[in-house]
Amino acid sequence: MNSSADESDSGAPLPDFRTQGLQLQTIAPALGVINQKASPDYLDYDVKGRGIFSTMFANSGMAYLLGISAGGIYGFRQGLAATPSTRFRVQVNSVLNHCGRYGSRAGNALGVFAVLYSFYEGVSDRYEPEELLGLTRQYPSLAAFISPVFGATMASATYYAPSGIRVAALAGGLGAASVAVTYGGYKMLGIPYGKLGFLFL
Prior knowledge:
Elements: H1 2-8, H2 24-27, H3 52-81, H4 88-127, H5 129-132, H6 135-138, H7 140-159, H8 165-189
Helix pairs in contact: 3-4, 4-7, 7-8
């Protein structure tokens, strides 16, 4: 009885290898089939670098991290110096209070400045004022310097705008001067400007 059952059983069904409904273009180029009609798919790429929003997020995150680190170290020192008692619990409380106070202030300030700077630099890159001023042909080395100067000037002026026009103008001048000093220092040292990819550094 077992032998007759084995003879009648043909085993598992064979898979269907018919390819009438298969479009090889959807599987290509794994099979070496190239669809000449369809345009190639490329990732979006900005020749000038990252987009304005990704730059904004990266700069603000790094600036906030640097701010809370520097402010936290300063707050640690101030907390130890301002401790009213020698008891360990009181010292820890004083250090934590000062670290939180100075760290959050510095982190928030630098983070906001980074967002403003990235926005204004992105706007300048978008409209290319160096092309309008003719600097690209006459002074090509200064062409990459325009957007960081504009970004730092406008970011500083915007940040201090609530304090008045004079303070905002002074802050804008200091922002432009800081970019100019950084640019000059990089040129003297022979380092490509913007090598770090963070703000105007």
